[in-house]
């Protein structure tokens, strides 16, 4: 995750959530987090940026976040990261519910019943991995397990394509 503060983005301007939203919608980013003059941004897909932050022992306390898509899985990860607010152009009802249950302000462009997978023919696999989970720590374990399964499946698929 790159830090705009380290890249000299400088002065805070306006509301943190609005700034994060502008950074996200400005293109090329999947996540933007702002706290005063600090900005964190990522172009990585899915929950990767959130898992990276958690893996590095970081949190987002005090930050306002704009994330491309928020379903239940990322919402449970945000419960661990503790930002003050999360905006997403697309957010699931369960995602919004989980955020609010953990004291995180939730807002979105479109509230949907569920997040679809990339093929748009079923539920997002990360969200499916936490369908019956409400505890953020248990969710983290389920999401890591799902990520490992998906990495193995993708590696096998890529290997078969190269043959």
TrEMBL record:
Gene Ontology molecular function: any one: catalytic activity
Pfam families according to UniProt: TM1506
Signal peptide residues on this chain, from the entry's feature table: none
Record-given protein name: DUF1893 domain-containing protein
Species of the source: Olsenella porci
């Amino acid at each position: 995750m790159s830090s705009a503060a380290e890249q000299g983005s400088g002065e805070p301007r306006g509301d943190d959530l609005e700034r994060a939203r502008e950074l996200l919608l400005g293109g090329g980013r999947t996540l933007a987090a702002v706290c005063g003059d600090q900005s964190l941004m990522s172009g990585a897909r899915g929950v990767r940026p959130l898992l990276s932050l958690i893996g590095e022992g970081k949190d987002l306390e005090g930050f306002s976040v704009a994330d491309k898509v928020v379903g239940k899985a990322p919402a449970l990860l945000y419960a661990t990261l503790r930002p003050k607010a999360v905006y997403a152009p697309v957010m699931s009802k369960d995602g919004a519910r989980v955020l609010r249950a953990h004291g995180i302000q939730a807002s979105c462009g479109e509230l949907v019943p569920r997040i679809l997978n990339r093929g748009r023919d079923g539920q997002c696999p990360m969200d499916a991995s936490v369908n019956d989970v409400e505890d953020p720590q248990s969710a983290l374990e389920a999401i890591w397990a799902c990520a490992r399964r998906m990495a193995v499946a993708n590696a096998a698929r890529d290997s078969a394509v190269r043959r």
